Amino acid sequence: MAKTDSLQGSLDLLVLKILSRRPRLHGYAIMSAIADMSGDVLRAEEGSLYPALHRMEEAGWIRAEWIRKDTGRRARIYELTAAGKKQLAAEESRWQVVTSAVNRILRTV
Amino acid sequence: MSLWSRIANVFRGDRVNRELEEEFETHIAEAVEEGRDAAEARRALGAPAQQLQECHDIRVIGWLDSLRADFVFGWRQLKRNKVTSIAAILSLALAIGACTSAFRLIDALLLRPLPVAHPEQLYVLSRKGMGFDNKLGEWDSWAYPNFRLMRTAAKGQAELIAISYTNRTDLTYKTDVEMEKANVQHVSGWIFSTLGIKAAAGRLFTENDDLKPGAEPYAVISYDYWNRRFGRDPQIIGRTFRFGDGVYETIVGVSEKKFTGTEPGVVVDIFTPTMMHNCVTRSDCTWVRTLVVMKPGVAIEPLRQKLAAVSHAFEANRLSGETGLSQETLHNVLNNQMLMTPAGTGASEMQGEYSRALAALAVLVFMVLLIACANVANLMTAQAAARAREMALRVSIGAGRWRLVQMVLAESALLGFLAAAGGALFAFWSAPFVVSMINPPDNPARLILPADWRVLAFGVVLTQAVVLLFGLLPALRTSSVKPVSVMKGGDDPHSRRRLMHGMIALQVAFCFVVLFVAGLFVTTFERLSNKPTGFSADRLLLLETTSKPAQSSIYWNEVAEHLRAVPGVERVSQAGFALLKGYGWNDSISVNGGPPSVDLAYFLSVSPGWLETMKIPLLAGRDFRDRDNRPDAAIVNETFARKFLNDEHPVGRIFEKASDDGGRERLEVIGVARDAYYSGIHGPMLPVVYIPFKAAPIDGQTFIVRTASSNPLALASTLRREVSRTRSEFRVSNVMTQLELNQAQTIRERLLATLAFFFGAVALLLAGVGLYGVLNYSVQQREREIGIRMALGAQVGDVVRPMIGGLCLSVMMGAGAGLALGLASTRYIESLLYQVKTTDADLLAIPCLMILATLCFAALPAIRRALRVDPVSMLRAE
User: Fold this and answer.
1) Measuring CA to CA, which residue among B373, B383, B439 is closest to residue B408?
2) How many structural domains are present in chain A?
3) Which residue range is the domain that position A61 belongs to?
4) Which of residues 52 through 91 in chain B touch A, CB cutoff 8 A?
């Protein structure tokens, strides 16, 4: 099945939303979560995930922390900050506006 | 928050990268755990280096990161050329430190506004014109009654404050034996409220504390004195002390910390009302400075005219009764002009005496700084040349011009800031050191030298300017490198050499000026200190002694007799005051009943034998004798005999001492003494009359003791005790040696000579290092050419000439410019010089010879290097 990886600038929204539901995930888990929850329809491009994560961290929306996993390997896990929650709300409403606009067009045409 | 973490990340870039790599590895491991192929997962993640770079750029500020990299690289460059870097840093540090130090001194003495409410409204009154001694001058001292009239006249437009000169006085908090010195200043009661000064403890004076002469025995002490003398003891309020002359005063308060008086160079310990001064009612005694505090919006000139009119009327009235003055003097004195000068930075003697000297030093120091900058610029240029290939490589792989400028400037900045740190240390130490060199006996200068934002700002601006000055040119030059020409094996070396030769010319010019001016100062000091004083200061101890109440000569002689019995004492004589102490006592002279002379004669009371103690030879006649009993006897010096008696058989001649009030005193010359300097050695020899002590009681004399040991001060405490033991009414208020007084005459000249000599040596050294560097560089650049020419049979001279020739030309041009600059500058420092003709051949020749010698010395290693070039190995290397 063809997977669409063009998230059209909605990667931030997805990451923030996932972290709001399930805090303290590492990068791979976030990627898997996007795939799982979208029923394998959406897939974050692995190459663009980490720059996005670091960008959001520098913006102060999420914060990172190193934990040691059972395997002994260290993993960098992320969680939402207060600013991130606000940002999520803003992104969500923006997304709603855009999708409803797109839907309106699809319905009328 | 985010900006801060990005800045912080700049300085832990490695750690950021390590963590990114680890995160990527975890990602791959997770993928493998899920059953994906490791290679496939890596491919999906993308090129690791690119990922890393992308994330790294997000985590750090790019320009800051590259700047950091430049600094790290610059630091490595500096470390690589350790010796040259240290030399550059030290020379710059010295120059920056000296400049900052000069700024601190000038700022503290001349620029810093007084810490008062409105310093810009402060003015000081002075008079300019012919004085009573028939010499041109400017005076800022006023009689108190005159001050009062002027204050009343200015009411509503300005407030006038009377402030006496600071007097270093004996006083005691306990008994007479525990006398100590303090700087005492008499001030108007309203000074503190007018200047907006608050009390740190107790209360300050008001106008009510300054009403009745002699009836206001209150003192306000300065915070500095409170801290230094009493450790800020709050119990000090209400304590009483007694002046050496017996007046008691009670401390009522402490003034604010920031206020140390209105005289930069002197820190006042005790303020006391003007009414406590014994001259306060006298019209013929000028002893206060007059500060004018203008009301806002009042014009200066009309007020000045008003005050001048009041003062003129006062003087005319006062002098109308003085029949002892010549008409010419009277006319001259009344024609003095009143000046009103801004005094926002205070008014002090030290300002007048040292402003020009400090300015001259500052200019010298600034030139040394420019020399050091030129040196470092040349050094950087030479290094840039050595790095031309590296730069070409950087350009060819895409480095921008600005990026290269930034790289070289970073190195300069690093050098600059290291030098600035060293310079700050140097300035921290050197400015107080210079002030401590201004140390007349018993009254050393104290200049408040705060290291505040003014000094900091000056230091920062100076460092920035220096970095740009020595860094920008080489940086621009480096950045304009053309890879093609470098790859071809050498760009145009001449342009670079032109720059360096220009710098050398600049250095030589400034070096010449510094050496020339230093020569002037050193010669001045030499001439002054080798000038014969006319007496011998060898082993002379001076005991300034007071008696309370005043005692007749018999008792003074009794004390002297006792002192003669002390072991180690050779001779004891007395005088009204010591020679070269700076005191003077003058009156007009009338010969053959004529009118009072315009020129004044100077007087000194001395005991019999004083001439011999001072080793001043008698040229004719005889000395005073113990049993003379002739109050009209006088011994005159040669200048007096020449000026007033036409040098015709002076002994036995009669003349009259004409006082201002018309009183005449008949004197007969019994001897002529050789000329000796009286109050100072700078001016011409004064006509002096030595007369015996009067029979009336005397409250102060100076015992002049010639000791057997070469260190007269060793006897000081014994003699001090002996004076009080002989008669309890006598007390030594001050002990010093005649040598100290003689040396105090040339304090400013010694300061200038020492510092100018030091900076001259530094300038020469720096110029030498600069010359050496440039020559060495040009040999390095031409090694190949030299090798080929030597292989073809060139002579030594042929090889060396082109290298030296260009340099000699720039040295000569520099010396010429320096000569012109030096000669032009002497106009501004003429007042600091003494009997030095700026056109003296040796004064011009010495700097030339020194620079020439330095040039030769600096050139030798480079020439040797050139001659050692081995043609074979040089050609093989190419």
Assistant:
1) B383
2) 1
3) 11-108
4) 54-55, 58-59
